[in-house]
Amino acid sequence: MISVAIVTVSDRSSRGEREDLSGPEIRSWASAQGFEVCDEIIVPDDLLEIQHCLIRLADKGANLILTTGGTGFAPRDNTPEATRAVIEKEAPGFAEAMRARSLAITPHAMLSRAVSGIRGKSLIINLPGSPKAVRENLGFIEKAIPHAVDLLKSQVTDCGTV
Fold it and tell me: Which residues, in sequence order, are CB contacts of 9 under 8 Å at separation 6+?
């Protein structure tokens, strides 16, 4: 079983001024994959708060931490910087695949600063902030996630047979 933590990064949603639609989209996707959502958190676009949240979730043992929001060009978009500050290893293929596939849909995909990486045994992936983009991007990477998590859990002994 893969445990998923969902982190919505939004000043307005954290203050209750706007409904979070992307977090529930991730939850729906995770359920459809047969994954267990272990945490669902909304934090403001504050660099240190995002960092602390990611560290706490990884230390609790979430296999997959999916963030939504805060990956663009706005002055308060801090999710990539917070993620880079807490990961121990980069896993750039996820963000690269999402950007490449998204470019076929919208030229705005090149504005994504999303990153992905590993902290301990947790895979952290930054997703865009819109529900539509969340759906699309998860669809682009979902087939690689179980194998990545198995590798982090040391449950794969021969990658050539998978």
Answer: 43, 44, 45, 50, 67, 68, 69, 70, 78, 79, 129
The position carrying tokens 């759906």 is: 135
Residue 87: strand, helix, or coil: coil
- The answer, as to whether pTM is greater than 0.85, is yes
Distance CA 83, CA 80 (A): 5
CA angle 73, 69, 106 (to 5 degrees): 65
The whole-angstrom separation of Cα 97 and Cα 99 is 5
> From first to last of its 162 residues, what are the pLDDT tens digits of the chain?
999 999 999 999 999 999 999 999 999 999 999 999 999 999 999 999 999 999 999 999 999 999 999 999 999 999 999 999 999 999 999 999 999 999 999 999 999 999 999 999 999 999 999 999 999 999 999 999 999 999 999 987 666 655
Going from the N-terminus, what domains does the chain have, and what CATH number goes with each?
A: 3-161 (3.40.980.10)
Tokens of 76: 């308060």
